[in-house]
Amino acid sequence: MSIERQEIEKLATLSRIAIGEDTITEVSQRLSSVLELVDQLQAVNTDGVEAMSHPMKATQRLREDEVSEINQREAFQAIAPDTEEGLFLVPKVIE
Amino acid sequence: MHNLTIAELVKGLQEKAFSSVELTQHFLARIAKLDANYNAVITVTADQALKAAAAADKRLAAGDAPALCGVPILHKDIFCTDGVRTSCGSKMLDNFIPPYNATVVENFEQAGAVVLGKTNMDEFAMGSSNETSFYGPVKNPWASDSVPGGSSGGSAAAVAARLAPGATATDTGGSIRQPAALCGITGLKPTYGRVSRWGMIAFASSLDQGGPMARTAEDCAILLNCMASYDDKDSTCIDREVPDYSATLNDGIKGLKIGVPLEYFSEGLDPETEKAVRTALAEFEAQGAELVEISLPNTGLSVPAYYVIAPAEASANLTRFDGVRYGYRCENPSDLNDLYTRTRAEGFGDEVKRRILIGTYCLSAGYYDAYYGKAQQVRQLIQQDFEKAFQQVDVIMGPTTPSPAFKFGSKGDDPVAMYLEDIYTIATNLAGLPGMSVPCGMVDEKPVGLQIIGNYFDEARMLNTAHQFQQATDWHTLTPEGIA
Predict the structure, then answer these.
(1) Which CATH class for the A3-41 domain?
(2) Which BP terms in the Gene Ontology apply to this protein (chain A) (predicted)?
(3) d(CA B179, CA B275)
(4) Hey, where are the domains in chain A?
(5) What is the nearest CA distance from A45 to chain B, expressed in angstroms?
(6) How does DSSP classify residue B143?
(7) What is the pTM for the complete model shown?
(8) Tens-place pLDDT, residues B45-64
(9) Is the complex ipTM higher than 0.90?
(10) CB contact under 8 A, B361 and A35
């Protein structure tokens, strides 16, 4: 199946990846080729087959709700692009 | 010293035939001298390594040395290392210095291993040729015009070129086994949940699994003894005792039932590769094993199912790279959306972006059931194939890859051609089963890998089987030219 330009633009928005005007055709071609591959799945009869989530059917473990980590804010913020007074800085969101 | 196995190095260190500092200096010198030819190592941690080696020598002298005390290794640059840049082969994390160690890294530290540095890899482990790395491709030590495989191509090439006796790696669709095959070394992807994923940068969380690479099965057993552990911090880790993988290596394999899947010897398999694999199977027969023809009828669906599940999970996992808390941030963002979209457009390479877009498509409103839901059902069918097979046989064997190492750029512009490289390895990830690759021949002066697939948590039997093969053959001892 081939994927339309409009759809690529929607995917770019959803995944927060800017796609340049000059590469849209190429991106669309390559995505179409991958979708053609995965579309083979549509022909498989999976009636009554349970979707697999963990190979050993393991479920999420629960633990007591108690503090297990120490506060490492300084260490974590030391590697951030921009911080101020313990906060991560991003461009102004609200005028 | 670089031609000794890990087993021999452990013995030599304990018997004081050489010190860890001497050993570490030797491997650091090899990396400095030879890695320009391979580009296998992204970051060398010489100072830390020498410090760790000196500490190891003290413990060896004091007689309280843990299992891998003083043995130099390399970590794939996907495992977070406290204070050492962890790039995951991406521009996005080129400046990322984690404030903590992955559990695997911690395990090796506890075992006294000396970390020489971090190995090159396909960006975010997405690739089968190492061509997607931000740091440039790794060259195959057997043929400089050919790929080492991927995504753990740096680890595989480094071990093959004797830049380290062993290395850590990860496998989501074949990323340990395929490069191990193409570089002529031994690599093992354990059962899903055997090795902690904590601090291992996530690609597809339901498929990712860390494992060892070395020249021999015996060495892989030593490394897995250290790598495998139950970890509270990884909610998908399975709480199950870790056996001593070295203890059963010398067991005989008489009566072992080996399943040979029809589908792994069909169209697309290079005839010379097939010949090498068949010769290996005959060697097992000579040792008293029995070959049983089996069928894994849904093999052909594994690549399409994988290319829904892996990109879908990757698209979710990689949302964290947003230029806010760590990693790359674009210059002068005009607003928050511009910060996100340009950071991600500039920080990720083409293949990573392609997979995020595919994954986003498969998970988007109206498509989820048709793609992700369907793929998870097909995954169940693939698992059932294996379940049925393991009622009849102890292990399954076949080729690791359809052909030996291919040339750079030869898979062209079509991503699907590259994806088919993993046709024999992907199904085990989907089923969560362990798989390994063992050198079993040479075609056009390039190595061929034999794949051994085991039942859940049957790594000890796989390593035993591989070790017995290596006792009778010498493919794993061959050395690429110029290495000596």
Answers:
(1) mainly alpha
(2) glutaminyl-tRNAGln biosynthesis via transamidation; regulation of translational fidelity; translation
(3) 20
(4) 3-41
(5) 9
(6) B
(7) 0.97
(8) 999 999 999 999 999 999 98
(9) yes
(10) yes
